[in-house]
Amino acid sequence: PGPGPGPEARPAVSLQQLKQQRDKLRQYQKRISLNMERERALARQLLKEGKKEKALLLLKKKRYQEQLLDRTDNQISNLERMVQDIEFTQIEMKVIEGLKIGNECLNKMHQVMSIEEVERIIGETQDAVEYQRQIDELLAGSLTEEDEDAILEELNIITQEQLELPEVPSEPLPTEVAEPTPIKNRPKPELVAAS
């Protein structure tokens, strides 16, 4: 024998059969309702004609059909509840299947990258960052002692240039003695200490 329908095909067929039964019950209800209306109208006609016994018999038949309608309402409600339960179960199955696929993907990813691998990569990254920090520190303080001495010497030269006095004029001084003007105490420029 060939392969039968898969597990998903069977619930779909059952669901279709339930829906068909529900629809047939609804059609049956319509047929009974039409019959009841006709028999009620016929019972009126019989009463007008004085045929009370036949009218009573038709009304008993109508009453029985009303009870049938009540029972078919219950059966339709049960069928609809079953249809809804099956449809919801199918949705749940799809969700579970999705979770299963997701778990398989996660497991494959975890096989590719274990916790030890992640720890190793993080450790290597931290080592690389520390190594770069050490290189940065070396470059920032890479001046030798000779460089430091040359920098201090250049600082002293610049400071001396600022302190040099103006040149003395070569012309003779006037012979008149001018009244001495009080000399203001000028602050002496301070030398900047080299650090």
UniProtKB/TrEMBL annotation:
Chief place of localization: membrane
Keyword match DNA-binding: no
GO CC annotation, single: multivesicular body
InterPro entries cross-referenced by the UniProt entry: Snf7_fam
Gene Ontology terms: biological process: late endosome to vacuole transport via multivesicular body sorting pathway; protein transport; vesicle budding from membrane
Pfam families: Snf7
Coiled coil keyword on record: yes
Location of this chain's protein in the cell: Endosome membrane
Annotated segments matching region Disordered: 162-195
Compositionally biased region (Low complexity): 162-176
Keywords: Coiled coil, Endosome, Membrane, Protein transport, Transport
Coiled-coil region: 15-89
Family assignment from sequence similarity: Belongs to the SNF7 family.
Protein name stated in the entry: CHMP6 protein
Gene: Chmp6
